[in-house]
Specification:
The protein has 617 residues and is of the alpha+beta class. It folds into four domains: 143 residues, Sandwich (Jelly Rolls); 90 residues, no CATH class; 75 residues, no CATH class; 201 residues, 3-Layer(aba) Sandwich (Rossmann fold), CATH 3.40.50.1110. 19% of the residues lie in helices and 31% in strands. The chain is built from 13 helices and 33 strands. Helix 7 packs across helix 13 and helix 10 runs parallel beside helix 11. The structure holds calcium ion. Calcium ion binds next to loops.
């Protein structure tokens, strides 16, 4: 695991952030393809065994291998061999389930004429192996037979398991084999999560809601929670959330500029209110600044509004021209700064709720690890100077990002097929990443964690025989209007196979403007045979996006325009915005992924771009 993920995301959050989901992608498909709607059928699995599998199949008992001995379609199928002790062979993979949805599992099976008998079954089960629906082939031997079973999720299960099963519990069957091909799993109907809304915890069976209980207190209601497969009764309890630490800064020596202090960059910065080069909004405790002539708040004390002024939201200060402060005078400034934190409300195996306290940080606080033997219920986000826990600060830990719809993904993978084929062949591939400061790497902690570098590296791991050259054409602060005139030099001259486009700085543009720029860029790239992946941008500072809290559905019209452009021009889409939109549902306040507090993701945020790009390869 990458160090950045480890540093930022602790055990509770890693599966949430790194796992995938279909709701988000179904919603993208709905936005991009008018035919798809929330209640339409979604394909969760289509497995032909012709190419390396995109789902994580697991095998327990017996063995399984992809073979070209026979196939229902194409050239390959899955050959399962049973083991000797119990006659077992189990090949399986799990999927997120949606309450109320209907699942149809279908597959083709071939049982050859052979000495030892076998009893294969196509099965949908829960993750505890309890069968929900299944079909066996009957007595047909030496021919391909289609099996199909169907199940409706009335019980609101959060996961289902597809298993290719042979379990006669009979000794001495070693040598029996059978073949599977063309397996599909579809999902239809069911409750759709609201994008950007708080999540549903897959481990909560009932109740156990975490709610504000006045001041810094939260209540955990009675209920039932699954802890390592066991249903545990939760004891109702009220917990006190400790306030964040406040730090007193003494005698910072500053020469105050005359520029009016305003926002993250104007006036003189109080050094301890700085994040990664820009000031952090809310970090300064209002009313705490003391400007003195000498250390220890000695000598003359200068007056706010007469000698100096400040933007207390952003921790910036400046001298007033008619005041007592000289232009070259060094003053001693003391003030207090506030920190932010994420805590996790957990339940242990006895049903006792407790608060797992995170570390106070100026920015990007880690989500604390959940102890082994416990389950996380809800994250509590404490913004700067939090004095009361309201519903806004509570982030129930929900389901991971859904697996993308297979049809949608296949369509987009086909749009980078040339690049992928070159990688598979072991050729040299050149990727140019065209974009703004985020593409340039802001604010990854190390060069290898910038998303272009991490993407190139992920391709090198996946296609070790290929040579992946990366040219980073990111320019900090620029948008596509400004970059397009340099397109020849920045992008085209490198003769790229693939170009990624990421401009969070384009988010204010009109549809016409975006179309003009992207159409031109795509046409010029097509002319030299290059393929394109448009990346929808991450989320920036909530107040910039018109939000008070950090529970936020995607509302930027430009994101919709980008999805439309990808459809119209038939270029691939890496829809990172969907990941950011889903973070709240996973229990993650997205603000903790902004390393400069405004618009630059941290390492984990960069990795979300990589995850979405790698879906195409
Ligand atoms: Ca096949």
């Amino acid at each position: 695991m990458r160090q950045s993920s480890h540093v930022f995301f602790t055990s509770a959050a890693i599966p949430a952030i790194r796992a995938r989901t279909a709701v988000g992608w179904a919603a993208i498909a709905a936005a991009a393809l008018p035919l798809a709607s929330a209640s339409a059928q979604r394909t969760l699995l289509r497995e032909s065994f012709e190419t390396p599998s995109r789902v994580r199949w697991a095998h327990t008992w017996g063995s399984a291998e992809v073979t070209n001995e026979r196939a229902h379609a194409g050239e390959r199928s899955l050959k399962c061999s049973v083991e000797n002790k119990y006659g077992m062979s189990v090949h399986h993979c799990d999927f997120r389930a949606r309450a109320g949805a209907t699942y149809v599992l279908a597959a083709w099976l071939f049982v050859p004429k052979q000495e030892k008998e076998c009893f294969p079954v196509l099965r949908l089960s829960d993750v505890g192996w309890k069968s929900l629906a299944e079909e066996a082939p009957g007595t047909k031997i030496d021919e391909w037979v289609q099996l199909q079973c169907q199940w409706k999720n009335d019980a609101g299960q959060s996961q289902i398991r597809v298993s290719l099963h042979n379990a006669p519990w009979k000794e001495g069957l070693e040598g029996a084999v059978y073949y599977w091909d063309d397996i599909t799993l579809t999902e239809e109907g069911g409750a759709v999560e609201q994008p950007g809304a708080r999540g549903r915890n897959p481990n909560v069976i009932e109740g156990a809601a975490v709610t504000p209980a006045g001041g810094m207190k939260v209540s955990v209601a009675a209920g039932k929670v699954r802890v390592f497969g066991k249903a545990v009764e939760v004891v109702p309890l009220t917990l006190e959330v400790p306030p964040e630490r406040v730090l007193q800064i003494h005698d910072e020596q500053l020469r105050l500029t005359e520029e009016e202090p305003q926002g993250y960059g104007k006036g003189t910065a109080l050094q301890h209110c700085l994040g990664t080069g820009v000031s952090l909004c809310g970090c300064l405790e209002p009313g705490s600044i003391v400007v003195a002539e000498k250390a220890g708040q000695q000598g003359r004390r200068y007056e706010q509004g007469k000698d100096w002024r400040a933007d207390e939201d952003w921790g910036r200060i400046g001298r007033l021209p008619d005041g007592a402060l000289g232009a070259d005078q060094t003053v001693f400034v003391s003030y207090r700064i506030r920190l932010i934190r994420v805590d996790t409300i957990c339940v242990d195996t006895t049903g006792r709720a407790y608060l797992g306290q995170g570390d106070d940080q100026k920015f990007c606080p880690e989500i604390p690890p959940v102890d082994y033997g416990s389950r996380g219920l809800c994250n509590v986000y404490l913004p700067y100077g939090c004095t009361e826990i309201t519903a806004k600060e509570l982030y129930p830990i929900g389901e991971p990002f859904p697996e993308p719809d297979v049809d949608f993904l296949d369509a987009h993978r086909a749009r980078v097929a040339k690049t992928r084929e070159k990688l598979e062949r072991g050729d040299s591939v050149t990727i140019v990443t065209w974009g703004d400061s985020v593409t340039a790497g802001g604010d990854a902690t190390r060069p290898e964690f910038r998303f272009p570098d991490a993407f190139a590296q992920a391709l090198r791991y996946k296609y070790p025989q290929a040579r992946v050259n990366l040219v980073n054409a990111g320019r900090g602060g620029w948008n596509s209007n400004r970059s397009l005139p340099l397109f020849e030099d920045d992008v085209l001259k490198h003769k790229p196979d693939l170009v990624t486009i990421e401009y969070v700085n384009d988010m204010g543009m009109s549809e016409e403007n975006l179309q003009k720029n992207y159409f031109e860029a795509i046409d010029r790239l097509r002319a030299i045979g290059a393929e394109v992946a448009i990346i929808t941008p991450h989320f920036t500072r909530p107040s910039w996006r018109g939000f008070a809290g950090v529970e936020t559905p995607e509302t930027r019209p430009a994101v919709g325009y980008l999805r439309k452009i990808a459809e119209e021009k038939q270029v691939a889409l890496a829809d990172a915005s969907k990941r950011w939109e889903h973070l709240a549902a996973e229990g993650i306040p997205y603000y903790v992924l902004l390393r400069n507090g405004i618009n630059h993701p941290n390492d984990a945020g960069h990795q979300l771009f990589v995850d979405e790009l790698m879906r195409l390869f």
